[in-house]
Please model this.
Amino acid sequence: VQLQAYGGGLVQPGGYLRLSCAASGSIFSIYDMAWHRQAPGKQRELVAEITSGGSTNYADSVKGRFTISRDNAKNTVYLQMNSLKPEDTAVYYCKAILRGTLRDWDYWGQGTQVTVSS
Model:
């Protein structure tokens, strides 16, 4: 599966952005999907994930502000980010996870920069 993330940009604190990640090359609906982010000098961290069945999980730092969703008809996963804070500044990456019996396979898209600054 190939992933193309877009929608990043510069936004003021308190603002919002919606990231999108379009998948191609495979059956999108069978993958769990996730958004990760990496700030300068920090490790990449999980932001949110959504299973093939639609269950979601969020990092504590974004609960109540971010919403992950997916549209299997459009082969796209979204990350709606509200009430953005400067500490949300990072490169955001989408990931597709194919769950196997013995192991999982991860596929990463290129990142999209999100900068929260006044």
Q: What stands out?
A: The first strand starts at residue 2 and ends at 6. The mean pLDDT is 96. The chain has no helices and eleven strands. The two ends are 37 Å apart (CA to CA).
